[in-house]
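Note to self: keep these together.
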Amino acid sequence: MKQFLSTILAFSFFVVSCKGQPNLKSEIQDPQSAIIPGAERINVYLPFLKGKKIGIFANQTSMVGDTHLVDTLRKLGVDIKVIFGPEHGFRGTASAGEKIGNYTDEKTGITVVSLYGSKRAPSAEDIKDIDLLIFDIQDVGSRFYTYISSMQEFLETALENHKPLLLLDRPNPNGFYVDGPVLDLKFKSFVGMQPMPIVYGMTMGEYAMLLLGEKWLSEKANAINAYNITTKETADTTFHFLVIKCKNYTHKSKYVLPVKPSPNLPEIQSIYLYPTTCLFEGTALSEGRGTPKPFEYIGHPSLPKNMFSFTPNPNEGAKSSKHYGKVCYGWNFGGTAEEVLKKVKNKIQLQWLLDAYKIFPGKDSFFLSTNSFNRLAGNDLLMQQIKDGKSEEEIRKSWEPKLSEFKIVRKKYLLYEDFE
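Structure:
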């Protein structure tokens, strides 16, 4: 089989420290600069890029210190031919679900091909002249956050077209636990493509290794067994898929993102709550879009007026959503980062859904008719269990043995020390 990259000599690590305060608000002040994302370890992967025509999948989270990865690499003489952008776009300003077409990036003059619109993966034509693909996107660790689906389809395209792929790994801010129902493949969609729980406790690099190892990719990609899949960054080797690992990260880390990953996850508190409160997207309740605290405020105009209140309105990241201009009553699950972590308790907070359903006056209209709740849950059982008044303990028991089985599979592909 054709070899795509020449033998690489061992090289030293290059550390770019994070400057300034993180944009995401948090009272957690671990020395964030001690955790070094893969993108900042430039001397490890720069030799792979020299003399190559590069295609890069990136967005506003693809930072090297205070500078975007694209700008950093261009200053180093890297020849970037095309940029691919996910949901929310390359600059990260589009609303959730907003379809984006191709365009020319004003700052760099490079063509941006949208992979969240008319197509979700590069075409063979898009990458025919590309020597090496790079993936660098910050994930938040929830199955229904679409960047992992984008990564899967990007990986499949690379394998199917015999293009080497370099994945620059980043910490998972929800990587310190695993929980939730395992997706039933009958409910496979872009917000859930694989049989995994809502919180899977893996970085993008680890998840990619799982996809490869378990052969969860397309039939054509799975058939390419001769490819060299490696994480040996400093070995003398050629590769077809390589993870550049984070430094000083473990699954016990509480990593605070320096850039918000999408418009409606503006702070670490919303990221911690997202695996639970995103399920409210499939209900009649507002999940706080159009407020300063999306995924922290949950409510509805018909709930008791003595509860916490808020009024959602259109904003840059949520131009349309539920109950805009109406006073909603419900819950504020926010607080300091430490307070939110104590509320989450390293698990999906089913009781919040059960309580909301219990006090909602129109039971028949609690779940949206779009079937979106089942797509988010990954099955149609959870909705029925809530309707039937099942307890949290009963619902959690129904997640087994699949949840425990996933945890065993997951451990085979971990690149970092686990939380247990």
